[in-house]
Structures are given as C-alpha cells and as structure tokens.
Amino acid sequence: MELDIRKQKILKAIIEEYNATGEPVGSKRICSLLDVAVSPATVRNDMATLFERGLLEQPYTSAGRVPSHLGYRYYLNNLLAEGFVASREQADIEAMFNVVNPDPDRLLADAALVLANFTRCVTIFSTNTPKSVCVKRVELIPATETTVVIMVIASNGVIKNKVCRVRFQVSPRICEFFTSYANSRLSGKSLNEITSSYIHSVANGMEEYAKMFDSLLIAIYELCKEINDGQFYIRGETNLLSYKELKEDAGDLLILLDKKQQVLDLIPKEPFEIKVTVGKENNRMELSNSSVLFVKYKIGEEQCGTIGVIGPVRLNYAKLIAHTRYFAHTLGELLTDTLNH
Known about the structure:
By secondary structure, the protein is α+β, with helices and mostly antiparallel strands. The protein is 44% helix and 18% strand.
C-alpha cells in the first residue's frame, strides 16, 4: 500500500498520539503535531482517505480517529524508527544483572519479573537446550538415614537436584558406589540419549542392586528431561488488567497464559531475530486486541533463548523493541558467561 509523505506523517502522528493518550485523535490536534503547515480541512481529507484504506477507525461518533491493526502494521513496516537505549538506561539494565555467580534458573526468573515491571506487560522467557549438551556429572549427597539428594550437572552449567527417599540405609560407602557407577554409564552422554529405555539398561547392569537404586535412576531420568526441556518463566500477567482496552479479553488471556504449551506455541517456528504480531494477525482469538513481541538471543554461539512481551496494541513500539533487544543481548551475554564457568 502506497501513501504519500503527508499521509504517512499524519498516520504516524495519529498512532504516536493515540499510544500516548489512548484517546481518539482529531484533525486540529494533528495540525499541531505536524512539522509542516497544513490546514485542518486538508488533514481531515487525508484522514478520510486513511479511513477508507482501513488504516484508521472511528470507534464512536466523534471527530477523532484511532489507528486500526492494519494501520499499526503499516507503521511498523514503513514508519517506525527504532528507538535507542540511552547510556543511563543501558547502565540501569546492566545493574539489574549485577549479581555474583548467578544461578541460571533464578537469573531467568528474576529477569522475567524485572522486564514485566519495566514494560508493564506480560513477559515470557524460555530457552531451548542445544543437542550438544550432555551429562557432566551425577552426584549423590546423603541427607538423612533414608533420604538423599540426587544432583545432575549438565555440560552447559545447568544444575538440577531432587530429594529422594530410598529403601536402604544411607552411608558414604553406598553413595560413593552409586555415584561411581552412575557416572561410568551417564557422564558424557547427550541428554537426548538419556531415554527411559537407556535408564532401564543402566538398571539392568546393576543386577541385584537394580531394585535398591531404581528410585534414584528414575530421578536422574526426570532431572535430565527437565534440563533438556529448557527453562520457561512467565511474569506480569496481572499487568494486563491495567489496560482498559483489554478489559473484555483479560479473563481469556489469563487462561491462555496459564497453559505453558499454548504459550510456547505462540513462538514462531521459522527462524527470526525479532517478530511483532499485531491484534488480529495473532492466530489466537484471545490475542485479537493484543500485540506480541518476540526477540531471540544467543547463549554461546547458539540462538536458543527467546524473550516475549504481550501487551495491548497501543504500545510505544520504538522504545519497547529497542529496550527488549538490549535486554535480551545483555541476558544472553551473562548466561553465556555463567554457563561457561
């Protein structure tokens, strides 16, 4: 769709004013925002043309107009100049991650909450575990006479543990025996190779000790699967309740956001670095009045992290995209440093 320069400026002014106020924008207000002298009558004629082309809507009987979802798409594709992150804002974002020896799980959870508070939107943080990740070591730590902590350390630095009740009297000798055997069969194995059938073969190799240690082997399998599935955090769901334009959709949105797999299905399957879908472009009815932004980031050399932001269509896209991109870059660098130590 082609628009002349003046109509582009009018559409841009309407969108940015509506983003700031949430109120329909009239021709007199547009005249005061433009950097060229244009009469209100000319602006009204151009607004009428934009309305006919589906780029503007009239929400009720009023002289004002609001951008349509199609208008937002034109704006994103043709008119948006991505904002920049000022030095002070860069320092603020970096300060959020100013922690010593951070735990990757806790780091992602905290980052999701920080970004939700910053954007006043819902944030989604997820990671995919590269196929190259393997079991680095298994540890068995005595807790009580009948309980132990089983710990799996992966080659990407992720550590998972679980408390297990056992059928034997816990002693250092038994823990040392199991740890030695488990590492001889599991250390260096890809997480994808740690299947239920492989764990069954490990148990068979223990012969008469198989029943004694079955709960520990099952725990190892579950921990490996948990690491392989990656991390997922969603924060800021109640932020949606503060937007009047989402009032009718809020209940359905909160139900959607409570289902992990459905949220993960929102992430585009095709390769991308940044992706924005607006309103009815989303393939979920619950998101027909929302915008969804996804940004990919690298952990090491692999692009296996995703940050998502869900909010109303009326967003400051220039600021949101710039800050989310910088946030993702900073998080990726920190996770890379953390997982390589």
